[in-house]
Amino acid sequence: MNHLVMGGRTFRSRLFIGTGKFSSAKVMAEAIEASGAELVTVALRRLDFGKKSENDSLLSLLDPKKLVIVPNTSGARTAQEAVRIARLAREAAGFDWVKLELTPNFTHLLPDPIETFKAAEILAAEGFKVLPYINADPVLAKRLEEVGVTAVMPLGAPIGTNLGIRTRDMIEIIIRNASVPVIVDAGLGLPSHAAEAIEIGASAVLVNTAIAAADDPRKMALAFAKAVEAAELALDSKPRASRLDAEASSPLDNFLWNK
Amino acid sequence: MKINGKQTDVQTPVPLAELFRQLKIDATHIAVELNGRIVPKTEFESRSLNAEDEIEVIHFVGGG
Hints:
The structure holds two protein chains of two kinds.
Chain A: E1 4-6, E2 9-11, E3 15-18, H1 25-35, E4 39-46, E5 68-71, H2 79-93, E6 97-100, H3 113-125, E7 129-134, H4 138-146, E8 153-154, H5 168-177, E9 183-185, H6 191-199, E10 204-207, H7 209-212, H8 217-236
Parallel strand pairs in A: 3-4, 3-10, 4-5, 6-7, 7-8, 9-10
Antiparallel strand pairs in A: 1-2
Helix pairs in contact in A: 1-8, 2-3, 4-5, 6-8
Chain B: E1 2-3, E2 6-7, E3 14-15, H1 16-22, E4 31-34, E5 37-38, E6 48-49, E7 54-62
Parallel strand pairs in B: 1-7
Antiparallel strand pairs in B: 1-2, 3-6, 4-5, 4-7
């Protein structure tokens, strides 16, 4: 199977994992390890001086030699806030990847296309490898390519909903026209959803809630990894097109149907 | 001094790195804004904070 090359890095796994919502950093690390994922997202927040939370050890459990660590800009509502977060992340740990996540409305958490575009333009010009989380909008995806994003991340469904790919047709149009990797992000609730994304030609998927919120995140991470791999194998095998008329798999002649 | 939005009693002036030592903060993977501007890590030792300063101390947490 072909490895994914993106932002100057080679990824053997097309499953990327978000590190939020895990019951502990240890459970998160085990799930990532089991999945073979080589890209993970993290968030930035104020340090809580009052308590020594387990999150303090988050980065110590993520090996930068094995993983590309991509800070997200969650919490940002404007391009200015997103740019601020990306710069802080770069200063904090030298990370030059950023997942743009600009969600002004906390009910649906859908991304603001205008602020996302503005932030992408600024950060790509500053040398960041920009991965914008966007609605499945083929025109926006192309405009983002033009300003130099490393990949585009159209959503399958709103964050954390586990609804699967509700934007399939638009994602297919994005993939057909893209000259950067297309990563389906958000809404993937089951391994079959991830397989579907790969089968329609997505370069990778990003999964968080479905893995982190499962009773056994390690097992679910493995299930997603297998589904993604199965879909890659299927694509490599060049599946035949579907058709409406049946075509017998067993011979129909030489016994009961003798003509 | 205001740290992460909270008024905090700190003896000033104090170098940023010294403040972290006092608060037992591991500064390896954190970023700091002093009055709205990022402080480069190379300046943690030299940058001195005053009573009227506002700092934001940011670190990494789990996120999707």
